[in-house]
Amino acid sequence: MPSSFAKVWGCIAAPGHRFILAGVVLVLLGVMGGWPWLIVLGLVSGGFFAYFFRDPERDIPAEPGVIVSPADGVVIRVDEVAENEFLKSPARYVAIFMNVFDVHVNRSPVAGTVTEMRHRAGEYKAASRPDAASRNEQQALVLENAAGRRVLVVQIAGLLARRIIPFVKPGQNLARGERLGLICFGSRVDLYLPGDSQIEVKTGDRVKAGSSIIGRWHEFPPQT
After folding, report:
1. pLDDT tens, per residue, the chain with 224 residues
2. Could you give the CA distance from residue 11 to residue 3 in angstroms, rounded to a whole number?
3. Burial state string for 42-56 with b = 16 or more CB within 10 A and e = fewer than 16
4. What is the three-class DSSP state of 70?
5. Is 187 a catalytic residue?
6. DSSP character at residue 204
7. Where in the chain are the domains?
8. How far apart are CA 166 and CA 108, in angstroms?
């Protein structure tokens, strides 16, 4: 495999490879059968899936105490809530909506160990709806850092999303910004942080997984 092709292929999340190859098969069938419409269909579908499943490298902030965004998208809610299912404590809450054009590979907001993972079946309502967090298909993941703080990341399927693909398993250690999973075709990620953490984003902000600073631990104020 030529190195340039391998580099491009490596920038596409593995779950997308079969979708792209299906487009290639359509192109080949169209060429062999003399069906231009099938060639166009293969090119369009293959191109779309290559774009959707792109997985670019990110510059992960090295500053101590920062918490990075788990997803690409737009912040649709910032709040203080009681998270009674996993953290069982007051929490700072940030919801990030990903449209179909955003990168859908999600990343770990902090360095820590995966202490719990839980999948819950549900509906496929629009992920931007306020009740999506309680009604939609979702995958919850709890991370615990070296200081014993726990962070909850919830991947929520949306109107078009029908599959949440985890890349990690319980007991696995993750670095800040490391890939943890993918949601197919439009979705949302909710982040719950300890109540004493500081949030540095607001509703309407656009963030990038792994590279945008979304918050800090309270003992690490912004560097000046």
Report:
1. 455 554 445 576 677 677 778 878 888 888 888 888 888 888 887 777 777 778 889 999 999 999 999 999 999 999 999 999 999 999 999 999 988 888 889 999 999 999 999 998 876 666 667 777 777 788 999 999 999 999 999 998 866 656 788 999 999 999 999 999 988 776 889 999 999 999 999 999 999 999 999 999 977 667 65
2. 13
3. beebbeebbebbebe
4. coil
5. yes
6. T
7. 3-52, 66-216
8. 12
Catalytic residue among 108, 187, 197, 212: 187
* Residue 81, helix vs strand vs coil: strand
β-strand partners of 170: none
Q: Which two tokens stand for residue 162?
A: 């029908």
Helices (H), the chain: 3-10, 17-33, 36-52, 132-135
CA separation, residue 173 to residues 111, 114, 184 (Å): 8, 6, 24
| Strands, sheet with 105-107, edge to edge from the N-terminal-most edge strand | 105-107, 179-183, 164-166
**Measured distance CA(135)–CA(126) in Å, rounded:** 10
Of 20, 99, 25, the C-alpha closest to 53 is 20
The set of residues, in sequence order, having a beta carbon less than 8 Å from that of 72 and lying 6+ positions away, is 96, 98, 102, 103, 104, 207, 208, 209
Q: How many helices (H) and strands (E) does the chain have?
A: 4, 14
Closest CA to 179 of 192, 158, 159, 165: 165
Each residue of 132-149: pLDDT tens digit?
777 778 899 999 999 999
Residue with tokens 């007051």: 90
* CATH tag, 66-216: 2.70.70.10
